[in-house]
Design goal:
The chain is an alpha+beta fold and about 200 residues long. It has helices spanning about 15-25, 70-80, 85-95, 100-120, 125, 130-140, 155-165, 170-180, and strands at about 30-40, 45-50, 50-55, 60, 65-70. It has one domain (about 1-180). The strands form 2 sheets. Strands 1-2-5 form a 3-stranded antiparallel β-sheet.
Length: about 200
């Protein structure tokens, strides 16, 4: 499946990770701490980000996305998935499949734990720039700031988590769906159920 997740036309330059991420995203990669996963060409696929970022004017703000999918090819493919029925089927699995539901809940808890570990490494002066309620919200939220693991949105968050090496059933299924798409982003037989 992994070979189906590789950009067919090698769009990204390789070398300086921050420059590559800037090229991929079309803007500065806020809070970038490092790279959690790379594609077969060596370009960053998933960035690790600080849970607190400095914005214009030196203001610190919470940034709930720990694993940021930077690969333009995968983001394009996900954009095609999110507009179709696969998204509704994944949400249905969370409601109806106990094992999948438990995996999604565990994945959200592990994501929060990763964010909390990163938060602990932030200098106290930066932590002090964020109000207490925003900090509580940041540390209690799931992937990408989502309040409930059942309310999935933005499949790129889950795919990034899975590609970073974490157990994430939503990310795994997203990868399987992308692997089943042709290079134009067209899903195969959409009547088939999503595997668990």
């Amino acid at each position: 499946m992994e070979e189906r997740l590789i950009c067919p036309d090698r769009r990204c330059p390789v070398g300086d990770d921050r420059k590559t991420a800037r090229f991929q995203l079309g803007r500065e990669p806020e809070g970038m701490l490092g790279v959690a996963a790379r594609c077969a060409y060596g370009a960053p696929t998933v960035l690790v980000c600080s849970p607190v970022v400095l914005r214009g004017g030196g203001n610190a703000e919470p940034f709930p996305t720990v694993y940021w999918l930077s690969c333009p090819f995968l983001r394009d493919m996900i954009g095609r998935l999110e507009g179709g029925p696969a998204f509704r089927r994944i949400r249905g699995l969370i409601r109806k499949d106990g094992t999948f539901r438990e995996g999604a809940r565990d994945s959200a808890a592990n994501y929060r734990a990763d964010r909390a570990r990163l938060y602990e490494g932030i200098p106290d002066e930066l932590k002090g720039m964020i109000n207490e309620n925003a900090t509580k919200d940041l540390l209690s939220a799931g992937p990408g700031g989502i309040r409930s693991f059942e309310n999935i949105k933005c499949l790129h968050i889950y795919l990034a988590n899975w590609l970073a090496g974490n157990a994430d059933p939503v990310g795994r299924i997203t990868a399987e769906l992308i692997a089943g798409m042709d290079r134009r982003g067209t899903q195969g037989d959409d009547s088939q159920p999503v595997s668990v």
